[in-house]
Design brief:
Layout lengths: L4 H8 L13 H14 L4 E5 L7 E5 L28
Protein name: Acetylornithine deacetylase/succinyl-diaminopimelate desuccinylase-like protein
Keywords: Hydrolase, Metal-binding, Protease
GO molecular function, one term: metal ion binding
């Protein structure tokens, strides 16, 4: 199943995922990504919680052929505060 990129980005970018904010939507962002990975065909898609960091979203997408190489993609989905702008 494909997800229109504009729809995905419109929803994804609306999450308040500032790590340092007392109130953020990190858990909701993780669940959104897990759901999207499932829709895209992930055979495994889960959220892994830890005590000291934001949850990791883990997904497995099977290769089309048995001899295909394994690829690992790692990224973060939380962001830093915009202010103070002078420090950017």
């Amino acid at each position: 199943m494909t997800i229109p990129m504009q729809d995905f980005l419109t929803k994804y970018l609306q999450f308040h995922s500032v790590s340092l904010a007392e109130e953020n939507e990190i858990p909701e962002t993780a669940e959104f990504l897990r759901t999207q990975f499932t829709k895209l065909g992930a055979t495994t898609s889960r959220i892994m919680h830890t005590d000291r960091t934001n949850p990791a979203v883990y997904a497995v997408f099977p290769a089309q052929t048995a001899d295909a190489p394994t690829i690992l993609f790692y990224n973060h989905y939380d962001v830093q505060p915009v202010e103070p702008l002078a420090l950017w």
